[in-house]
Amino acid sequence: MSQEGPAPRPAGRPRGSRPASTATGVAALVASLLVLGSALTVYLLRDDLLHREVVGVAQAAGPAAGGPGPGPGSTVPTTSSGSLTAGDPAEALQRQVGTDRIRAESLVGQWVPQLGSKAPGLVVNGRTFDEASILADFTVSRSRFPQAILVRSDDYTSFRRGGFWVTLAGQPFATAQEANAWCDQQNLLRDDCFAKRLSHTEGPEGNSLAR
């Protein structure tokens, strides 16, 4: 009688292996986590880009770089368009002469370009001047030549007639020719600019030189 060995084990899954259903569940869980992670990454990137876009638009719409914007309740200041010749023109002319007197006295005996000479009632090219238009004329000259000054012809013996408001360039020259050369350089008409010398003792002769 032959001896029988141990009875064989019934066929089944190998030891240590997992059921197919468990492996499938794990794979599905991993896939779900990957999908969720990808979605979260896309959402965060989109939110960051949206934030940058909003900030960029806000900065572009704000004040210039480095400049603070207006505070709550503040208003943007505006430039006043008030007239530079407000008030009585005759008084304004006299004040201007007083302001320029020291400068004018420093020019006595030197040649300076004369830019204009006007008196109330004077007619030039059909235009009748008064104190207001004389002041406006001086203001125009002063805006182009900031060194220009205003004097009264009554205050100097080198003018032929009194009662005139005279605009001088305020820049001295050693000779009349140099003063007239300055007029040429400024492209001014002959009657609008010529050499003049102020004096308290000498008469008009020899103290003017036309171009």
Helix content: 25-40%
- Cα end-to-end separation: 157 Å
Instruction: Choose one word for the global shape.
Output: elongated
**Strand line-up of the largest beta sheet:** 4-5-1-6-7
Please give the count of helices. Answer: 4
- SSE string, helix = H, strand = E? HHEEEHEEHEE
What does this structure look like?
Keywords: Membrane, Transmembrane, Transmembrane helix. Residues 73-83 have a biased composition (Low complexity). This protein has helices at 20-61, 89-106, 131-144, 176-185, and strands at 111-118, 123-124, 127-128, 149-152, 165-168, 194-197, 208-209. The chain is elongated and about 120 Å long. α2 packs across α3. The chain starts with 19 loop residues before the first helix and ends with a strand. Strands 4-5-1-6-7 form a five-stranded antiparallel β-sheet. The protein has a two-stranded antiparallel sheet with strand order 2-3. The protein folds into two domains: 25-59; 89-209, no CATH class. It has 211 residues and is of the alpha+beta class.
Brief synopsis:
It contains four helices and seven strands; from the N terminus they run ααβββαββαββ. It has 211 residues and is an alpha+beta fold.
